[in-house]
């Protein structure tokens, strides 16, 4: 990646671009998007179609998403990369610690959250905004049982986002949890850990185009809550 050096050299980075065109950013040329290519009935159905395409088009870990929350009353926003683990007829599901993590504190005060998927191999992006709800312990147990033993132990041992005196403290907690469940084949999902469903109120599908004149279409929930409005947005 080449770095263009401006006359004002106070900037540490300025307009980073590719190594062929120097100060000019890459152009998106792999596709276009029209209204006729979108499912008018549901953005979840459309997301499923795009996700399958990403899986078969060389996108690495297309389930990777940026999950953003905001705390009230401060309004401070926090973002982190997580995995979307499930998609059902009502929303997108992720799993995490909901007892001590920063995201859990945000969700306690503000039920709105967003997801952003970025698939550079196909030059596509999907943005989701919606209301969150916790999954039941029984629902969370189903996914929890699919995790490797180390990850199940880790969910119990980690007080996510809390200050650690050192790695030794975490290692000691892991050792305690291993001893606690020694010989047990089925470990119960912790009460503070589990699934969160983001129920979309808005979903945007973005296809990169040349000169930053991207194709953008937005699904938004109708006021009566029945069905979706689908509109093209200016890039």
UniProtKB/TrEMBL annotation:
Catalytic reaction(s) noted: pyridoxine 5'-phosphate + O2 = pyridoxal 5'-phosphate + H2O2; pyridoxamine 5'-phosphate + O2 + H2O = pyridoxal 5'-phosphate + H2O2 + NH4(+)
Cofactor: FMN
InterPro entries, per database record: Pyridox_Oxase, Pyridox_Oxase_CS, Pyridox_Oxase_N, Pyridoxamine_oxidase_dimer_C, Split_barrel_FMN-bd
The entry's keywords: Flavoprotein, FMN, Oxidoreductase, Pyridoxine biosynthesis
Gene3D superfamilies recorded: Electron Transport, Fmn-binding Protein, Chain A
Subunit comment: Homodimer.
Protein name: pyridoxal 5'-phosphate synthase
């Amino acid at each position: 990646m080449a770095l263009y050096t401006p006359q004002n050299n106070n900037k540490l980075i300025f307009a980073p671009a590719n190594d062929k065109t120097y100060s000019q950013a890459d152009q998106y040329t792999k596709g276009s998007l029209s209204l006729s290519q979108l499912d008018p009935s549901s953005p979840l159905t459309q997301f499923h179609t795009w996700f399958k395409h990403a899986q078969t088009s060389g996108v690495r870990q297309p389930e990777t998403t940026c999950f953003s929350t905001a705390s009230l009353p401060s309004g401070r926003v926090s973002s982190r990369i997580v995995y979307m683990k499930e998609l059902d007829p009502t929303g997108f599901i992720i799993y995490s610690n909901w007892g001590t993590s920063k995201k859990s504190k945000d969700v306690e005060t503000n039920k709105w959250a967003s997801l952003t998927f970025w698939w550079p191999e196909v030059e596509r992006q999907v943005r989701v905004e919606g209301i969150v709800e916790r999954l039941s312990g029984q629902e969370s147990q189903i996914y929890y049982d699919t995790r490797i033993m180390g990850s199940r132990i880790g969910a119990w041992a980690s007080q996510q986002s809390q200050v650690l005196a050192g790695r030794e403290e975490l290692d000691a907690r892991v050792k305690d949890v291993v001893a606690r469940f020694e010989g047990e084949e089925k470990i119960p999902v912790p009460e503070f850990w589990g699934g969160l469903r983001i129920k979309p109120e808005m979903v945007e599908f973005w296809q990169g185009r040349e000169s930053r004149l991207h194709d953008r279409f937005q699904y938004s929930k109708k006021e009566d809550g029945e069905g979706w409005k689908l509109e093209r947005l200016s890039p």
